[in-house]
Design goal:
The protein contains five helices and five strands. The protein has 131 residues and is of the alpha/beta class.
């Protein structure tokens, strides 16, 4: 049986980052949707079925930490990986405290991103099969 590719939501206010990351992930077999605004991202995350969310921390409307908290407060259990230029240890601690599974610092190494996605989608798969 061929595994179903993971469905990834990329949330970043920088369109170039969304496009480049989408191309990279699609080449690896992922299905990708991206959002360049917080409102669009929240709508997609609440309405869509994603296996993992890649989330920037510095966005104009809300921080990624605030977005993560909003999703968790609405019982969205989708694994969240931060992908951000915010590199202080406090940024990572705040993201993890808000419910993130991982925190990668931009520029993100291709292999590190793929490893984080595999780990997150395995967690997501394990949680959905144990219920």
């Amino acid at each position: 049986m061929t595994p179903v590719p993971a469905n990834v939501l990329i949330v970043d206010d920088d369109l170039d980052t969304c496009v480049v990351t989408s191309m990279l992930l699609r080449r690896e077999g992922y299905r990708v949707t991206y959002a360049t605004s917080v409102r669009e991202a929240l709508d997609l995350a609440f309405d869509g079925t994603f296996d993992v969310i890649l989330l920037d921390n510095w966005m104009p409307e809300m921080s990624g930490v605030e977005v993560c908290r909003e999703l968790r407060s609405h019982e969205v259990k989708t694994p969240i990986i931060f992908q951000s230029a915010a590199a202080y240890s406090t940024d990572k601690e705040e993201a993890e405290s808000a419910g993130a599974q991982d925190y990668l610092v931009k520029p993100v190494d291709h292999q590190d991103l793929l490893t984080a996605l595999r780990t997150a989608t395995n967690l997501s798969y394990s949680a959905s099969t144990s219920n």
